[in-house]
From TrEMBL:
Protein's name according to its UniProt entry: HHIP-like protein 1
Xref: SUPFAM superfamilies: Soluble quinoprotein glucose dehydrogenase (SSF50952), SRCR-like (SSF56487)
Segments for region (Disordered): 652-686
Alphabetized PROSITE patterns for the sequence: SRCR_2 (PS50287)
Keywords per UniProt: Disulfide bond, Glycoprotein, Secreted, Signal
Length: 790
């Protein structure tokens, strides 16, 4: 029992009554000011509580108001506490949710002594008025019974102790660290079965699509719901030079979309080719098809630049559009070891393009020139220097990114971060600036590599912001500064990794000193990541990082670093403290712009494959009027096979819900369960509750109509309609109705069947209620209604 208690305290516990994490309100609260920095109320909810308080206080004279006002306001404001779910017993499926927050014993005794007759006023809008009137009349004169009703026995979480408990309030809502200082994250798998995914980008066009490039030469389009379009955005497999070798650095290496892609409709690619047995890197432009917004016109290729590669390694491979609209190209030093080309190597030679960052203009051109040179490029006019060069002295920059800037202040906007792969000892992270010399081959990280060049007083090199030795990793993969909405604690954190060691790392700038603080990133423990869709393991070889249109971060990795092995996976990074702290409601909601699709959609399934469903009966004991009542319950489980390790089979039992199940592809949409108990066909109007954790008394409402299961919109849906649902399932009533998909959002494969449902509460099914026609609605799955039955 001691071990179980420790794990629970170590897991993320703050939670609101909508079963979501607390947040920092966008506007300060006026009434429940204890929770103005962090809690479960926005200004609208705060005003609602304030109105209720004013209504109650109309029953008091000045003396009574002074005596009882503080008790009433404190009790009402516990809906705003970051621990509201615990105070109201909403976390425990085996107990009915409280109508008022749980109080500490001493506080309850004081409340009883000073203001016990106000209890009925607090309960006036909580349901059956006569029932609560009888209750308060029975307990108001008996302090023991009064506090049996209000007291929460857990002295750490009851009010007001929960406000002052040092353990609960230490680092509340902040990013989590383990005992070694390692920042804990969880992951969500969003795509798999990829062959060395080298890049993932977005179009910044409101569609929230992302485009994933494989080293082999394919680029695929994924929609915001995770589905992949069955035909490639681009297929250059016949032109791309690569092989099956493990670790081959040649291939399709990067893609970038024009910053005005919606109007210019052009894409730029970086790939390896063989021309008359000579290896080259090629930068080309493609135009979007006139007939398909999710496919490039393969006949439209316009070659922009080719550079001969003297060796098969150090090909670089990054394309970026800067905020200035110019295209930046990051090219490796030509390969082999130690940049052995010429007196000083390619990287220090400004007459060569190898080992450089280039900047070109691909907009202001004519038919005779593939690109032009920006007039402010640093070496324009310098004798012997290539005018394309923006920065030099780089070895093999692998994955660069541009900082979006702080969402509030814009600080950091436009900074260019790169990971530069080292030689024998050090890997480094650089901030790229115009005209900068990054030291290779004179230096590797902060250390000298070629001592003669290193001592040259004219080197004037720019040092990295960070380097690390090969005991931590041997091939850096540059990342991104987090600027998304969902995880405010990570704002400003630069997250990167290492291809060889699989290590995830982070840097945070000290704005006062300009120094960067290092923290390793590790996977959260099982309890930390024990939430729907989250995992805490990944494939080791980290190939690339990515940012979606909303600014959320991902990384791409593989279990077999070969261009032909289908073991590549894309993971979304999730800060587990976001499970204790979220952005304010509505702030991070997105509505992807519809995309016209030609072809089929391939739906995403996590790596574990579905084996089968099993219906399990079990018994539970419930105490009713002091006597044990034996209940026979049923739950459906799925058994899954983990295919992560090809040589082993691991079966796992997990509660089955239609939200989390991997339905076999041959099952038609929403039509997987047409028969009920004993094989009888389900009657139209049957309902079920779908929850991520398998709780039988709460979840998203789904209804069975015309042979398929579908969802119900929350428009006009009240507790009366919820009670109709709960009674069908054997419960007495609906304790509450949860709107805006608070209990789970269905996948796009599930149809919305009912909208504008209005019930009197006595109907036998939702089909008997006033409603719109089946299948007719004006809502999305973001408005799926849920209920909690009791």
């Amino acid at each position: 029992y001691l071990f179980t208690f420790w794990v629970w305290r170590g897991s993320c516990h703050p939670q609101c009554l909508d079963y979501k994490p607390p947040f920092g309100p966008q506007q300060p609260l006026v009434f429940c000011t204890d929770y103005t920095k962090f809690g479960c109320c926005d200004l609208q909810k705060d005003e609602e509580i304030s109105r209720k308080y004013d209504l109650i206080m109309e029953n008091f004279d000045t003396l009574g108001s002074a005596r009882c006002g503080k008790y009433i306001s404190s009790i009402l404001c516990q809906e705003c506490s970051p621990y509201a779910a615990h105070l109201y017993d909403a976390e425990d499926a085996n107990t009915q949710m409280r109508v008022l927050p749980g109080l500490c014993g001493d506080y309850c005794s004081d409340y009883w002594r000073d203001c016990r007759y106000t209890l009925s006023l607090l309960l006036e809008d909580k349901g059956n008025l006569q029932q609560f009137a009888n209750l308060t009349a029975a307990i108001e004169e008996d302090r023991r019974r009064f506090c049996d009703f209000l007291e929460l026995k857990d002295k750490q979480y009851c009010y007001p102790n929960v406000l002052t408990d040092a353990e609960l309030n230490a680092n509340l809502g902040l990013v989590r660290e383990d005992s070694t200082g390692c920042l804990e994250v969880c992951l969500q798998e969003v795509a798999n079965g990829l062959r060395n995914p080298v890049a993932m980008i977005h179009a910044d066009d409101g569609s929230h699509r992302f485009f994933v490039a494989e080293q082999l030469g394919y680029v695929w389009v994924y929609l915001a719901n995770g589905s992949r379009i069955d035909h490639p955005f681009l297929n250059l497999t016949k032109a791309v030079l690569t092989s099956r070798w493990t670790g081959d650095e040649r291939g399709f290496l990067c893609i970038a979309l024009h910053p005005r892609f919606t109007t210019v409709r052009k894409a730029y690619v970086y790939y390896s080719v063989s021309v008359k047995k000579e290896e080259r890197i090629r930068i080309s432009e493609f135009t979007l098809s006139d007939h398909d917004d999710n496919q490039l016109d393969h006949s439209s290729e316009r070659m922009i630049l080719e550079v001969v590669e003297p060796a098969s390694n150090h090909n670089g491979g990054q394309l970026l559009f800067g905020h200035d609209g110019y295209l930046y190209i990051f090219i490796g030093d030509g390969g082999r070891a130690g940049d052995p080309f010429g007196k000083f190597g390619n990287s220090q030679n400004k007459s060569a393009l190898l080992g450089k960052v280039l900047r070109i203009d691909i907009d202001n051109i004519d038919e005779s020139t593939p690109y032009t040179i920006p007039s402010d490029n640093p070496f324009v006019g310098e004798q012997g220097a290539r005018p394309e060069i923006y920065a030099y002295g780089v070895r093999n920059m692998w994955r660069c990114s541009i900082d979006r800037g702080d969402p509030a202040t814009g600080a950091g906007r436009g900074r260019m971060f790169c990971g530069d792969v080292g030689q024998n000892k050090y890997e480094e992270i650089d901030l790229i600036v115009k005209g900068g010399n990054y030291g290779w081959r004179a230096k590797e990280g902060f250390s000298c590599y070629d001592r003669k060049l290193c001592q040259n007083s004219s080197l004037d090199d720019i040092l990295p912001i960070f380097d690390y030795p090969h005991k931590l990793g041997k091939s850096v993969t540059g990342g991104y500064v987090y600027r998304g909405c969902e995880m405010p604690n990570l704002n400003g954190l630069y997250i990167f990794g290492d291809f060889m060691s699989g290590r995830l790392m982070s840097l945070k700038e000290n704005e006062a000193t300009g120094e960067w603080q290092y923290n390793e990133i590790c996977m959260g423990r099982d309890q930390t990541c024990k939430f729907p869709k989250l995992i805490n393991s990944y494939y080791r070889y980290i190939i690339s990082f990515a940012e979606d249109e909303a600014g959320e971060l991902y990384f791409l990795s593989t279990g077999v670093p070969s261009a032909t092995a289908r073991s590549g996976v894309i993971y979304k990074i999730v800060d587990p403290s976001r499970l204790c702290r979220r952005a304010p409601p509505g702030k991070c909601s997105i509505k992807p712009r519809p995309v016209k699709i030609k072809g089929k959609l391939i739906h995403f399934y996590p790596r574990e494959g579905l084996i089968g469903f099993y219906l399990v009966s079990y018994q539970a004991v419930q105490i009713v009027n002091g006597k044990p009542l034996i209940l026979t319950l049923k739950a459906q489980f799925k058994v899954i096979i983990d295919t992560t390790q090809s040589k082993s089979l691991t079966t796992t039992w997990a509660p089955y819900t239609s939200q989390t199940a991997n339905k076999p592809p041959e099952t038609p949409r929403g039509r997987g369960n047409k028969r009920g108990k004993g094989g009888r066909r389900l009657p139209s109007g049957s309902v079920r509750l779908v929850s991520a954790d398998g709780m039988p008394d709460r979840g998203r409402v789904e209804i069975f109509i015309r042979g398929e299961w579908g969802t119900v919109c929350d428009d006009l849906f009240t507790r009366k309609a919820g009670t109709v649902v709960c009674r069908q399932l054997g419960f007495t009533t609906a304790l509450t109705v949860m709107k805006r998909a608070a209990l789970g959002e269905a996948s796009s494969r599930v149809r919305i069947l009912l909208d504008d449902v209005e019930c009197e509460g006595e109907e036998r099914s939702l089909l008997e209620c006033k409603r719109s026609k089946v299948g007719k609605h004006n809502c999305s799955h973001e408005e799926d209604v849920g209920v909690i039955c009791g």
